[in-house]
Amino acid sequence: NAGVTQTPKFQVLKTGQSMTLQCAQDMNHEYMSWYRQDPGMGLRLIHYSVGAGITDQGEVPNGYNVSRSTTEDFPLRLLSAAPSQTSVYFCASRQTGGREQYFGPGTRLTVT
Amino acid sequence: QQQVKQSPQSLIVQKGGISIINCAYENTAFDYFPWYQQFPGKGPALLIAIRPDVSEKKEGRFTISFNKSAKQFSLHIMDSQPGDSATYFCAAVSDNFNKFYFGSGTKLNVKP
Prior knowledge:
The complex is a heterodimer.
Chain A: E1 4-7, E2 10-13, E3 19-25, E4 31-38, E5 42-51, E6 54-57, E7 64-66, E8 76-78, E9 87-94, E10 102-103, E11 107-111
Parallel strand pairs in A: 2-11
Antiparallel strand pairs in A: 1-3, 3-8, 4-5, 4-9, 5-6, 7-8, 9-10, 9-11
Chain B: E1 4-7, E2 10-14, E3 19-25, E4 33-38, E5 45-50, E6 56-59, E7 62-67, E8 72-77, E9 86-94, E10 99-102, E11 106-111
C-alpha cells in the first residue's frame, strides 16, 4: 500500500492563479481531510469528507473548494490564490470508526 | 481563537531526561485527545492517544496524563533520546471524530 499520496510536493503560484492539490489514498478509507500547517498555528482543518459525494467545512474553509467523486481521491482547489494561502498542506485519511488519521507527506505552496 | 493551547513552543532536554509538553482546552465536547509526532519534511504520525474517562495512558516511554476537571493534558517522554527530536502536536477531537483541533506544536531537541 502506498498509503496517502500528495502531488505536487512543491508549488509556486502567482497571486490570482488557480491550482488543484491532489490527494489519493489506497486504504479504502471513507474519511479524508485537508489541513494547512503554518508556523505557530499548528495544523488547521480546511475541509473534510466522510464519503464520496459528502464534504463539509472545517476551521478555515474560505478560499478553498473540495469535491469527492471517488473514495480514493480528495482534491483541494484554490480558485484565486492569495499570499495568505502560502503554507504547507497535508491530506489525511481515516477508516470509518477508526481513530487514527494517516497523513500524507505534504505539499509546500508559495503564493507570490 | 485556538481551541487547544500548547506549551512550550520549544524544549531542549538532555539525553536520558524527561520531556514534558502541556496542552489545555475549553470545549467539553472534545472526547478524544491524541498526540502526533512530526519529523522535518514528513506528515504527522499518531504517537499515543487518550479518552477523557482515563487519567493516564502509558505506551513504552510515552505517557499521557489527563486532568478532566482542569481541562489539561500532557505528554511525558521518559528517558528522552536524540531520535525523539521532532515536533509534537497535541489535538482534541469532536463531532464523531470528524473534527481535529491541533495545538501550535512543540519543537523538541534532545541533546546527546
